[in-house]
Amino acid sequence: MTLDSTPESVTGARRHTVQVLQCWRAEGELSDAARLVVSELATNAVRARCGPNGFTLSLVLDEGSLLVQVGDQDPHPPRPRAAGPEATGGRGLHLVDELSSRWGYYHPTPHGKVVWAELPAGEHPADGPGTTGTTVVDAGHPCYPASPPSAEPCR
User: Fold this and answer.
1) How far apart are CA 102 and CA 120, in angstroms?
2) 56 CB-near residues (< 8 Å, 6+ apart)
């Protein structure tokens, strides 16, 4: 899905994530972690405000993991910052790092980036005997792959 670069869109991205995971019957700890990761990545995308197109959100639930991807038009890589005890920001990527099994970014175009995080999901609850495949809610942008590059994550 594509959202405007406004603070209200971060709320919409979180709400969408929770609703999708409820539909996939993947709630509980995964939903809580995904909501926090989406919130942090979407907030960073809104702060980037590079370009008129807002940002994109993509969710992919596969065997054992949930892939969250947030794309924006800012080509600069995400950089974790040191945050002192009184700081009001600077902890978002540290939180993403703690909640995900791995994370990174890639450039789908010369003028943008996608930051991704892979969260351990355990057994896929919607899978039953005889079912296979991946459940995908994509950002609707054909050049965004459904999974991160195979290279080690950039941190």
Assistant:
1) 9
2) 1, 2, 3, 69, 70, 71, 72, 114, 139, 140, 141, 144
Rg (CA), the chain: 15
Instruction: Write down the residue that tokens 């996939």 correspond to.
Output: 24
- Per-residue model confidence as pLDDT tens digits over 8-66: 999 999 999 999 999 988 878 899 999 999 999 999 999 887 666 789 999 999 888 99
Instruction: Phi first, then psi: give them for residue 142, nearest 5 degrees.
Output: -60, -20
For the CA atoms of 84, 116, 98, 11, the dihedral, rounded to the nearest 10 degrees, stands at 70
User: What is the spatial distance between Cα 45 and Cα 48, in angstroms, rounded to a whole number?
Assistant: 5
Chain position carrying tokens 């450039």: 107
- Tell me the C-alpha distance between 25 and 120, whole Å: 15
The helix/strand/coil state of 13 is helix
Query: Rounded distance, CA 75 to CA 2, Å?
Result: 18
Mean pLDDT of 86-112: 83
pLDDT mean over 123-138: 44
